[in-house]
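Problem 3 from the worked examples.
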Amino acid sequence: MLSNKTFSVIFFTRKSKNATQKLTLYVRITVNNQRAEISIKRSISPERWDPIRKRGKGTSQNIRILNNYLDYVYGQLLNCHKELLEEFKYISAHTIKARYLGEDEQHKTLKELITYHNTNMTSVLRKGTMKNYYTTEKYLIEFLNKKLRVEDIYLKQLNYRFIHDFEQYLRRYKPKKKRRPLTNNGIMKHLERFKKMINLSVKLEWLPHNPFQKFQLKFDKYEREYLSEIELKLIEETSFENKKLEKVKDIFLFACYTGLSYIDIKQLEVNQIVRGIDNNNWIYTKRAKTDEQVKIPLLPKAQEIINKYKNSPEVIITKYLLPVYSNQKMNNYIKEIVEICGIYKHVTFHVARHTFATTITLSNGVPIETVSKLLGHSKLSTTQIYARVLENKISEDMQNLILRFENKKHEENQIQFSESS
């Protein structure tokens, strides 16, 4: 592409402030009589500098190395000018200088991308989600410092190997505190968040290509834990003298019969119980995680739990529907409850949501589309992760199918018999 702007690059010297017997070398970029200067971090004796050729005098090894470096700088500046022309960018002495020094948008760094993403997403993503991004940021910075031994890296330097090495770093990571190492799916979630940041940089045109293009995230599939009808009944019928355990049991059962997550129940207010289209009580709320609106008709057992606590001091004083402890305390008490009940499963509060999807709704013939609405999912595929069809439901459906075939055959035989007679 042609440009009618004048452009020149020359080297010159200034007396060094620190060493009086040396000259400091600079390069001057001129575009349409506008100048920008860069120190090239080299010095030379006055007698060794040729002011006409703008190069070092002589054939010594040091002079040859210096002149080669000056030629390299000259070539890089010409290349910066060429890149700006090809990208239809505004060309000035300062834009060429910025491109050479890596200070323009073409030379954004990984840390700049992370800061941009996390700053702009605080108003879009939930606090819990942002917390996860901050953890991913911590791992990326540790990887740069400890593995690559650099403070930062240009985005254009990112490639498949960087992602692969970061993955391996996470796999070998040993937590300082007494915590379990990262699981495969935990590692994939960090890479997934990193990938979203990279996708943003591509959209912003900070990166010409996506280094994740050939990298595949591989999550392990596993069966999500849930309570069977017998296990759920066992918890329901167990009474606890410890009031805290009894309270946690009730709130856990409320989650089993509503499908709400911990945070959704914790934030549920009394005024969110309203009369629905069928003149029965419904929960009208928004999911804290996705901001999706959910409307849940209250099952009798969930209503019983609300009635049990509606006059409790915690509910009267606060605006919340149920007295809910912290997530950590809830899970600790739930672990104690299932041990007392003789249930040998890893049960957390979130298991209640899976139990609602599987044992309460799907296994009782509620269509998956309805379950998806009740869970507040925007996509049916998300519901299929939570909900699985039980073996007895498969057996029941197949028996119904066999019965339909038999009835159909019986009807056909009767028609044939009536026609023959």
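Problem 4, a separate protein:
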Amino acid sequence: MPTTSGTTSAAARAPRLLREHLYERIRAEIITCGIAPGAQVHEQELAQRYRVSKSPIRDALLKLQAERLVEVVPRRGYRVRPISLGDAAELYDMRLVLERACVERVIANASDAEIASLERYRRLAARVRLPAWIDYNRRFHAAIASICGNQRLARATIEVIQVFDRFTYTGLAALGDARSLERFVAEHGVLIDAIERRDRRAAVAAIRHHIEGSRKRMLAQLAHPAIVP
């Protein structure tokens, strides 16, 4: 019997969805330190763990390598990149420069409709779990970058933001308090307010306060086993 076009399309999507699902699962384990920083990972072991072939595992690891979450160890497979304090310091400096530039360009050039699109990030469901909050936080900062009017700046900023998920998790995991997450959502609201008023000075101060707060929380976790000197 001939295969319908709908069935063919669904069959074609299945491998892609499997690969995306595996990538998200492995990434989540790395972000939450379920797979510890510095740990060796092997395609065969992951394939057995997730009950799949090595091909989608390899694809996921290549994407994670591009995000600098894993690195290739010759003849030994892959290693989850440790959270280096030197890397963290450089990335926080980079993030502050890039996000400040994005905020300034949004205020100067973004349309009222583009700025209004940030309103969706003003609130978050009560008692949201930390992984979901991290996803929301990444999307909020990426949304500001995406309307800055400079595609190269936006891409560079979003690439740096994506690397920060492990830092964010490490800095917030010890808090264990949903009200703390609500406070950070309120900080986003302060930034949105300043952008909507096109108040450059207040917006720059808000993004600086937000990023420096994250830096301090990260430094406060120096004794965390996921961090290496």
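Solution to problem 4. The longest strand covers residues 70-73. Confidence is low (pLDDT under 50) at residues 225-229.
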